[in-house]
Amino acid sequence: MQNLYETVKKAQNVVQVEAVRVQKELAAAEFDGYCTDELIKATLSGNQQPVRLEITEAAMELGAEKLSLLVTEAYKEAHLKSVQAMKERMNNLAQSLGMPPGMSDGLK
C-alpha cells in the first residue's frame, strides 16, 4: 500500500511540474489576429491576455464604428489562435502523462 501511495504522489508531482511548464510556455507565447485587409493586428498571449493592438492609419480613417468592428475581428482571431494552442498543449500534456485521447477535453 505504501508503494501505491508513493507512486501516486510522484505522479501528482510530475503533473504539477508539467502543468506549470505548459502555463509558462503559454504565458510567453504570442498569437496574432488580423482583421480583413490586415488593417488591425491584435496580439494575445497564450493565456489570452492582451499584449498589444496595432492600428494602421488607413483603419483610423474608416471612422469609429468601422474601426470598432475591425478591432473586434482581429481580437477574435487572436483569441481563437490562443485558445487552440492552449488546447493543443494541454492535449499533448495529457497524452505524455498516459491519459487516453479526449480525457483532457475538460481542461479548457
UniProtKB/TrEMBL annotation:
It comes from the Eukaryota. GO terms for cellular component: chloroplast. It is found in: Plastid, Chloroplast. Keywords: Chloroplast, DNA-binding, Plastid, Transit peptide. GO terms for molecular function: DNA binding. The keyword DNA-binding applies. Its main location: plastid. PANTHER family: NUCLEOID-ASSOCIATED PROTEIN YBAB. Belongs to the YbaB/EbfC family. This is Nucleoid-associated protein. It comes from Buddleja alternifolia. The lineage of its organism: Eukaryota, Viridiplantae, Streptophyta, Embryophyta, Tracheophyta.
